[in-house]
Write a structure and sequence with these properties.
There is one protein chain. The longest helix is centred in the C-terminal third of the chain and has 19 residues. The protein is 38% helix and 22% strand. It starts with a strand and ends with a strand. By secondary structure, the chain is an alpha/beta fold. The protein contains 10 helices and 11 strands. The chain has a 5-stranded mixed sheet with strand order 3-2-1-4-7. It is globular, with a radius of gyration of 17 Å.
């Protein structure tokens, strides 16, 4: 259980969030929550959270994505494609769903892309992968805007950037997925790196709580190590100093 945890690494999974948590006495756990608010409620009030989800939505985009994505990609070599370009706030908010069916979802994607092009220079649409993140992006966005103090504890991160920083600045040699399917050598490479950075082995052998999958577990564990780094003051920010969106939310990826 996550109750009483002071650190949490979080990744989105289908219809939920998976958290790897650590209590003050060092106990660790994996848990799944249907809503991000439920996850926060299960943690200590002072808990530090690193989450693989964009935070901070600019009104316009200059270049290939937010400044955070542009700052992170040069450190990822062949893993750069894992950092999706998130569009301007209005494009994220225009129609995130839920949608009745695939046709309605495709129409919403087109509308978001059309608006994103008018709010970016050079004009840029929205990838399908990025579009599918919109509901979870807005879930966190609403919580942080309602309680700005949360932004001091809930930090955007990114698994591949986290793995690179844990690996002495070198991106992972193997992809995590190939043609949309998990790639065993890539998962093994990441497990070994997590263990070499003092991740409790129990987190990697416990059953993965559904609906999360093994790759979600590894990403949440990487986020937990980032939360540790944030607490220790050793995490890096991309960019540094962070930008801010119109609501004062930071636009930076920590790893």
């Amino acid at each position: 259980m996550a109750d009483g945890a002071v650190l949490a690494g979080v990744d989105g999974c289908p219809g939920a969030w998976i958290a790897a948590t650590e209590a003050a006495d060092g106990r660790t756990a994996l848990a799944v929550f249907p809503a991000f608010a439920d996850l926060l409620a299960a943690l200590r009030p002072e808990a530090i959270v690193a989450v693989d989800m964009p935070i901070g939505l600019p009104e316009r985009i200059d270049g290939p994505g937010r400044a955070a994505e542009q700052a992170a990609r040069p450190h990822l070599g062949p893993r750069q494609s894992s950092v999706f370009s998130i569009p301007a706030r209005a494009a994220v908010e225009i129609d995130p769903g839920p949608h009745e069916d695939g046709e309605a979802r495709a129409l919403a994607h087109r509308r978001a892309s059309e608006l994103a092009r008018t709010l970016s220079d050079p004009p840029r649409g929205v990838s399908r992968q990025g579009f599918m993140l919109f509901p979870k992006i807005l879930e966190i966005d609403r919580l942080l805007r309602a309680d700005p103090a949360l932004a001091n504890r809930v930090h955007e991160s990114h698994p591949e950037l986290a793995f690179a920083m844990l690996n002495g600045g070198a991106a992972m040699a193997q992809p995590k997925k190939v043609r949309g399917q998990v790639f065993a050598p890539g998962l093994a490479e990441r497990r070994a790196l997590l263990l070499s950075n003092d991740l409790p082995p129990a987190l990697l052998v416990a059953p993965v709580p559904r609906p999360a999958r093994e790759d979600d577990r590894l990403d949440a564990c990487a986020m937990l190590l980032v939360a540790r780094r944030i607490r220790a003051g050793t995490a890096r920010a991309f960019p540094d100093p962070p930008g801010r969106d119109a609501h004062g939310l930071p636009v930076t990826i920590r790893a």
